[in-house]
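Section 5: illustrative case.
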């Protein structure tokens, strides 16, 4: 065998194999590699979009949390103001009620004093008449001496 013919035959087989590989094997292989690269690129792009969306969502959540915190503090402040107003109103109502009760008690006390005086006057008038009866040793007619007795009760 001739070395040149073997070498030439190997070149021909090599080029046929290379041509067959480039025509039938290489395109599906390159297509699969391109699809894989495309999937990886789209996955990386989706990951970047996800990170961006997550950062935006976190910013929105922080803003909402700050808004809720401010609103909560505002509601607490309003509730404290309202509680202070209710307390002041209750104090005023209690003060007015206490003043009314004191005034009522004073009026009741004055009425009792007036009643006691009237009762005392009546008793004194009765005692005075009895005393006069004893002094005069005769009966005094209250109907006949009504004016004198009423004047006496006024003086007492």
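Designed sequence:
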């Amino acid at each position: 065998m001739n070395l040149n013919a073997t070498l030439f035959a190997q070149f021909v087989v090599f080029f046929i194999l290379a041509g067959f590989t480039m025509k039938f094997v290489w395109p599906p292989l390159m297509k699969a590699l391109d699809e894989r690269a495309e999937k990886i690129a789209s996955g990386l792009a989706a990951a970047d979009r996800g990170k961006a969306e997550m950062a935006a969502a976190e910013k929105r959540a922080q803003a909402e949390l700050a808004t809720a915190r401010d609103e909560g503090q505002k509601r607490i402040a309003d509730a404290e103001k309202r509680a202070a107003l209710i307390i002041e109103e209750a104090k005023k109502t209690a003060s007015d009620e206490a003043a009314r009760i004191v005034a009522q008690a004073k009026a009741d006390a004055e009425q009792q004093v007036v009643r006691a005086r009237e009762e005392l006057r009546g008793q004194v008038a009765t005692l005075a008449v009895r005393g006069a009866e004893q002094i005069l040793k005769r009966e005094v007619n209250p109907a006949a001496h009504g004016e004198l007795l009423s004047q006496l009760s006024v003086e007492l």
